[in-house]
DNA sequence: GAGACAATAGACAGACCTGTCTGTTACTGT
DNA sequence: ACAGTAACAGACAGGTCTGTCTATTGTCTC
């Protein structure tokens, strides 16, 4: 016991733990090729870790998928809240979300929404479906709050439309290999916002 | 030879051919559970057909997936062109597309875009990805043409936004189990259309 | 130095998948 | 009546997948 660092996170200056290397490998391979296509063996090989370590740390592949998506979810939330803090008006905050989307979609190796993709590959009871639902609820609540702050009469209705643009931009950037969909979504969001205020 | 009906389609009054029963089973099972989850054995059992008949008719599972998606694609095109013929103005035609979407999303067993879902489960060289790209190009061209008819200055830009709403509504209806997303998309489309004309 | 502990490599079981192949049955046109 | 054809049932091969288990190595604390 004593003050030994927990094995689930890296020691302050040491090499990353097996758990973290597994998460990094999962993040890379699952996103690039899909949670179904990528098998356990490729994950552990890429992480340089024994199979028993994976099952010791996560218990099953499904739980590894959950941890992979949860980490993405936290990252996305952080990125959005950080960006929102840089703007004052609710209008600018809403529009800046689409700027983030554009930067995400321009990154090399972009393959669309990790949550949607993992859900589409899974059975309805899988962890991916749960995490996806959580992420969607968070995004919708975010837009609803911002739109309400902007003084829109019926915030739910406009927020739902902004979510449509958000989802649509995500899909279009991926399937059409065209990050400009985010800018189109931003322009549409501006029109809808102005029409509602 | 002579005037024998081709084995690929049913005789005028006879029972459906093995090929058609396979397509019907594929349409049902692939859409409901995913092209990866559903194996060959379940398809042929559901169709009441021998395995050799499947490989004789389609050659591989991937080609069965292609045929399944191509059929869906034709059905969707037909449904939209039929609906468009019932309206006069380009504006009404555009908006009616979202009415169709709402009816599709309200049907029991709706599970989102068959093309996207199959693509997300497949490797980039799979038939699903090709058919998906074709379907997207068709939809985009449809909107572009209608918007041009409506006299919009830059039809491509508005058409891209309508595609965003189309994709977004498809995703939202599925993931949030809420067909009203189509109505929200229709309302947003009306605002964008009016702002552009 | 000794024991505890975490991680290692890798074999293994059991299930599932695609695709091939053999042999049989039923129908259809001449 | 008979040849040709389509479909049938089902075994089989060869591969992949998840998850378990054994046995070994290295490291850290007392």
Instruction: Classify the beta-strand content of chain A into a percent band.
Output: under 5%
Give the end-to-end Cα distance of chain A, rounded to a whole number of Å. Answer: 60 Å
**Cα-atom radius of gyration of chain A:** 19 Å
* Biggest pleated-sheet summary of chain A: none
Explain what the structure shows.
2 copies of one chain form a homodimer. By secondary structure, the first copy, chain A, is an all-alpha fold. Helix content of chain A is 72%, strand content 0%. Chain A contains 9 helices and no strands. Chain A has helices at 18-33, 40-47, 51-58, 61-84, 90-106, 114-120, 127-149, 155-175, 180-196. Residues 1-13 of chain A have low confidence and may be disordered. Chain A binds chain B through residues 33-34, 36-37, 112, 116-117, 119-121, 123, 132-133, 136, 157, 160-161, 163-169, 171-172, 175-176, 180-181, 184-185, 187-188, 191-192, 195, and chain B through 33-34, 36-37, 112, 116-117, 119-121, 123, 132-133, 136, 157, 160-161, 163-169, 171-172, 175-176, 180-181, 184-185, 187-188, 191-192, 195. Chain A binds a DNA duplex (30 and 30 nucleotides) through residues 2, 4, 7, 18, 39-41, 49-53, 55-56, 60-61.
Name its key features.
homodimer; 197 residues; mainly alpha; 72% helix; elongated; DNA-binding
């Amino acid at each position: 016991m004593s003050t030994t660092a927990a094995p689930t996170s890296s020691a302050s200056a040491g090499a990353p733990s097996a758990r973290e290397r597994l998460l990094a490998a999962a993040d890379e391979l699952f996103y690039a090729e899909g949670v179904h296509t990528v098998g356990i063996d490729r994950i552990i090989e890429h992480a340089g870790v024994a199979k028993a370590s994976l099952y010791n740390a996560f218990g099953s592949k499904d739980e590894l998928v959950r941890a992979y998506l949860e980490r993405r979810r936290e990252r996305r939330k952080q990125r959005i809240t950080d960006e929102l803090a840089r703007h004052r008006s609710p209008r600018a905050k809403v529009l800046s979300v689409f700027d983030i989307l554009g930067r995400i979609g321009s990154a090399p190796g972009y393959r669309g929404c990790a949550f949607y993709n993992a859900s589409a590959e899974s059975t309805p009871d899988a962890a991916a479906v749960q995490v996806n639902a959580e992420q969607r609820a968070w995004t919708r609540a975010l837009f609803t709050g911002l739109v309400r702050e902007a003084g829109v009469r019926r915030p739910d209705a406009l927020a739902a439309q902004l979510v449509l643009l958000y989802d649509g931009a995500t899909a279009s950037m991926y399937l059409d290999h065209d990050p400009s969909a985010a800018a189109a979504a931003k322009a549409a969001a501006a029109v809808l916002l102005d029409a509602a205020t």
